[in-house]
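re: the backbone from monday

yeah here it is again, tokenized this time
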């Protein structure tokens, strides 16, 4: 397994209206010792400039989209962005790619069919544009996409999963590929308040078949998916509690085989406020 990395996954970095505020937050994370910043690239046609802004405004921290939708940006576009970022900031930009979800992709009339075949075709396009497999990582949940992550990318960036999935993903990837799951957390010791915040997040994801079908493979049922998730499911997917308890939940993913955990601190769906205090507290324990 590669050196253990502690990273950040936070919608604030795209949601912040102020580039300066985003760079200020990224700079603090860099000083705290976090390895990489992940955030969604949204559903526009190009990789958002915010990724390059953060690279230009910091010195060492990595930046990665989690993810660029393969239905919205062309291989040529993302390859050009990645090549430019690599020239300016060698080794700091990792291209995260994903097949997204039918309900999101079909909003603009795109026909969401054969996402695995679409990803293979997309990777062929990146190969043609001379983007090396080591410069890209795939959002992967099921066995086929995990195998593709092993064979044609630097590794896998699973989202909304459990430590049991992390263990399965490590087995599928083998020892030499990067495994960097996103793990959402709630830094709140009161069980009712913590689970209420968690359910503001889980409710939307439990309406997406990609996630529920993956969870079913590990024994979760429709009963667990109802009403934002059973207590047992919420507790399995979302570590919550004191910073020490949250860190213990994150550690389960490292023990299961993660090289890097991208921590998303849930703060009630507020994408315009950066939860700096929580990341400071977690850094003192995990880094």
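seq for it, each position gets an aa:
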């Amino acid at each position: 397994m590669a050196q253990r990395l502690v990273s950040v996954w936070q919608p604030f970095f795209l949601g912040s209206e102020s580039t300066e505020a985003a760079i200020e937050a990224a700079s603090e994370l860099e000083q705290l010792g976090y390895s990489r910043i992940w955030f969604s690239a949204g559903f526009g046609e190009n990789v958002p400039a915010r990724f390059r802004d953060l690279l230009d405004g910091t010195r060492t921290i990595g930046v990665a989209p989690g993810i660029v939708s393969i239905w919205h940006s062309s291989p040529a576009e993302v390859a050009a962005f990645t090549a430019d970022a690599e020239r300016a900031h060698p080794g700091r930009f990792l291209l995260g790619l994903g097949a997204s979800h039918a309900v999101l992709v079909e909003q603009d009339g795109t026909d969401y069919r054969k996402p695995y075949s679409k990803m293979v075709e997309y990777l062929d396009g990146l190969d043609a544009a001379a983007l090396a497999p080591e410069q890209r990582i795939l959002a992967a949940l099921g066995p086929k996409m995990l195998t593709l992550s092993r064979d044609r990318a630097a590794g896998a960036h699973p989202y909304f999963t459990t430590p049991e999935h992390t263990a399965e993903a490590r087995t599928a990837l083998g020892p030499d590929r990067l495994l960097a799951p996103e793990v959402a957390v709630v830094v709140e010791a009161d069980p009712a308040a913590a689970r209420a915040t968690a359910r503001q997040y889980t409710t939307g994801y439990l309406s997406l078949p990609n996630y529920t079908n993956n969870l079913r493979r590990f024994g979760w049922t429709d009963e667990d998916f109802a009403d934002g998730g059973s207590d047992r499911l919420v507790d399995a997917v979302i570590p919550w509690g004191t910073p020490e308890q949250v860190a213990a939940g994150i550690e389960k993913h490292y023990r299961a085989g993660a090289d890097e955990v991208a921590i998303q601190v849930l703060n009630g769906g507020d994408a315009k406020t950066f939860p700096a205090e929580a990341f400071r507290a977690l850094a003192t324990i995990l880094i």
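Residues 5-286 form a domain with the TIM Barrel fold (CATH 3.20.20.30). DSSP finds 14 helices and eleven strands in the chain.
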